[in-house]
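Can't paste images in this forum, so I'm doing it all in text. The chain is below; anyone willing to post the predicted C-alpha cells underneath?
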Amino acid sequence: MGSIYLPLHHGKAPYWLLGRMKKLAKPIIALIIKEFGEKEFFERMSDPIFFQSFSNVLGFDWNSSGSTTVLTGVLKSVLNTSDFSIRVAGGKGKEGLKTPEHVVRFADELGIGSKAEELIKVSRLAAKVDGVALQDGYDIYHHALLFSPKYCVVIQQGMNTHARLARRYHWKVSSFSAKAEEPHSGIITVRRENSVMNLVARESRENRETILDVVRDGTFQRDYRKLLSVLRYRESVVVPKRIDWNAIEKAYNLQPERFEELLLVRGIGKAAIRALALVADIIYNAEYSTQDPAKYCFAVGGKDGVPFPVDRRSYDEVIEFMRDAIKQAELGRFEKLEALKRLQASFYSSAEGRRA
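Text version of the structure:
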C-alpha cells in the first residue's frame, strides 16, 4: 500500500480557481462517462488515488485535507444538474447530516424515488461503519453519497484533531447495498495507526458473530461486569465506562441477525461496540483485527504554489481544449489519439517551462 500526506488545512479555494475547476471538471467527467460508461466513473470515484489525482489535475493542493471537501463541492456543482443522471448528496458538517433529504429530492429528480430508502440505508451504514465499527482515532466530519439510477458510492473523511491529520474512506461501488465486511476500495492516509479496533476485517468475522450472540442472548451486562473484573489491573486495554444500556436493550428486543442491523440500531455507538468487541475477544476468545486497513499528480499547478503556481492562461487553454474534445468525441480513433498527443505535449511543455 502507498500513502499520501493529508494534513488538516484551513481556508478556501480562491474564487477564480474554483470557477475554473468546475469548468474543467465537467468535460473530463463527460468524457469518462461517454468513453468508458457510467459505472467506470463510479469506479474511479471509489479509487482514492484517482480521486486525489483528479483534485490535483484541477489545480488543488497536492496533499490537503481540503481536497476532499473542495472536489466534492465541485462534483456537486457539475453533477447536480440536468446535464448528468448522477447526483451528489451530503457534504461537510451540516451538509453531511442533510444527506437523507438530499437523497429523497435527487432520487425523485432521477425517477428512482422508490429507491431512496435503500440509498439512505447505504449512507447510514457507511457512516456507522467508519465511525463506529472501524475505531482508528479519526472522527467522520465529511460524508458524501454519489448515486445514479444504477450505482452508488460513498466517500467520507475523518479527522484526528490531536495529530492534525485527516484520512479519506472510499467505499466499493454497489447497486444500492452495502456490507460491513471489507467494504472499502481504499483508505488514504498519512500513516498507519497502531491502536485500531478493526471490526470490518475478514479476520474479525468470528468476533462480529459473537457480538451478535451476546446481544441476542441478553447476557451483555453480566459479561461486561466480568470483563471489568478481568481487566481491572490491565491499563493497556481501554474499556468504555459509559454505555447506552437502552440502546443495547433495544438491540436485544430487535434480535438482529446481521452485524449491519446491529450497527443501524439508534444509540449503538463507539462505546457499546467497543465493549461488545472486548467481551467477545476476552471473555469468549473471539479475536478482532487490530490491523489498520488504510493505504502520490499535477497538470496546471497547485493553489498553494506547489509544485508550481497555477498558470491561469494555461488553465483556460486546457478548458477550451477539453470542450473541443467533447465536440470531437464522435471522431475516429486516429483523430482522438492525435488530439490526446497534442494535450500531452502542451502539459509537458508547460511543466518544462516551470522547471527552467
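The CA atoms of residues 216 and 255 lie 5 Å apart. Residues 202-283 form one domain.
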